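ok trying this again, last paste got cut off
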Amino acid sequence: MNRWVLWMFSLGVSLQALADDPSARDLVRSALDHWRGVSSYAEMTMTIERSDWTRTLGMRAWTRGDKLSLVRVIDPPRDAGNGTLLRGHEMWTFSPKVNRIIKIPSAMMNQSWMGSDLSNKDIARSSDIVDQYRHRLLSREAVDGHQLYWVESIPLESAAVVWGRERLAIRDDYVLMEHQFWDQDDELVKTLTTLKVETFDGREVASLQRMVNTESPDEWTEIRVLRARYDVPLEAYLFTHSNLRNPREQPLP
């Protein structure tokens, strides 16, 4: 009798723990929303490390909702003015050297951005993964006082993506701690890892992230957030072709 009661109690605890897990899709959506906010502005650096050279870019980024984002390089001078604009599922880049706005076809969304280990889609923080993938919760574990949820995301048959699957480690406060990209042959291609978490404008966010290609572990790209503001009013003109070509930056306090 006691054994039966113990078994029923254990089953109840297991079912309750399962019921308490937020849905995998909601976790992914919340992690993206947490990073972007209703709107956001950030000042960052991107450092690209290679075996024979190192390069650092200064950048500014604006987002509004999950469909609009603009990333602009501000230094060094030779790269200043390069920008990437995302509007919905469409993306454009601008290079002052050729003075042209170029639309990026979907087939090039996963190509390198500015010679880094991040793709065009990575830099724009595209939210396509939410609706174009199926999501399932793999596990959860206690790490540094937080619950860490591992989610596996597999693209739908209709999704125009190159990855066979992606895996995300998301904290209970929706900070993305790790993001793995696996190819169609189920080989791990690259991993984005959060190295530091800091508080900006009242929210904890990943302030230092490193993307590493599996085949070249000694080469990497780091994104470091220097300043971030969230839920700030942003004018519509920021996310236009005109502003992509001729910057009219909105001052923020």
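PB: full thing came through this time. DSSP finds five helices and 13 strands in the chain.
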